[in-house]
Design brief:
This protein is mostly beta strands. It has one domain. 13% of the residues lie in helices and 41% in strands. It contains two helices and twelve strands, in the order H-E-E-E-E-E-H-E-E-E-E-E-E-E. The longest helix is centred in the first third of the chain and has 21 residues, at 2-22. The chain is globular, with a radius of gyration of 24 Å. The N and C termini lie far apart (86 Å).
């Protein structure tokens, strides 16, 4: 009888060990962000029929804002964007191991979309400029072009919101929804909500502060 019990116990141990080896390891969440950066690089916007081409500029003006894991910049951080100028706006995101993770959002373009809020009505224009691994255009917002159409009397809080959408929701979003104040109707959760003070000014109207 004891031999039978020992055999059953031994078989149970083998079974448990075998199952543990066959269990897949949990998928690592590559969308966790510990810090982020937004970089604004001045470019030339060139009209081509009903759309624009965006060309690099030698020695272009560049400004980068770094954000903590709460989406906040350092104390006193702010930007001056100049009327009539266009900037390439790019996101860099780091996970908790310090690895860049922004490509993950492009790879999962079907469930990610950026919204840009806070500017006075008609003050900014924005165009998505992401490409997937096959070179196809996808609207995410890791890369885009933002153009200042007019100045603003007061500073405002510029919000860059990267939304993780529920399945099937993205089909209802148009490129023109980039600044939709009712973005929350596109159900999901925010992966990022970055905020920084922005001034829209004429060239030469701001100092280096």
């Amino acid at each position: 009888m004891k031999n039978i019990l020992y055999f059953i116990a031994f078989a149970a141990i083998l079974s448990t060990t075998s199952c543990s080896k066959d269990d897949p390891t949990p998928e690592e969440d590559q969308e966790e962000v510990s810090s982020a950066e937004l970089t604004f690089t001045e470019v030339e916007r060139e009209a081509h029929g009903d759309h624009y081409h965006y060309n690099d500029i030698a020695n272009a003006e560049t400004a980068t804002v770094k954000f903590d894991n709460k989406g906040l910049p350092s104390v006193g951080a702010h930007l001056h964007l100049e009327n009539g100028k266009t900037y390439r706006l790019t996101l860099k995101a780091l996970d908790f191991a310090g690895r860049e993770t922004q490509q993950t959002f492009i790879d999962r373009a079907d469930i990610h979309q950026v919204f840009i809020l806070g500017a006075p009505e008609g003050a900014l224009d924005y165009v998505y400029a992401d490409k997937d691994a096959n070179g196809n255009a996808v609207n995410v917002g890791v890369t885009g072009y933002i153009t200042v159409l007019k100045t603003a009397d007061n500073a405002f809080t510029f919000r860059y919101i990267l939304r993780h959408l529920n399945s099937g929701v993205k089909a209802n979003i148009k490129a023109s929804d980039w600044n939709n104040p009712d973005f929350a109707k596109f159900t999901g959760e925010n992966d990022l909500d970055l905020k920084v003070e922005v001034h829209l000014v004429n060239e030469g109207e701001h100092d280096d502060d």
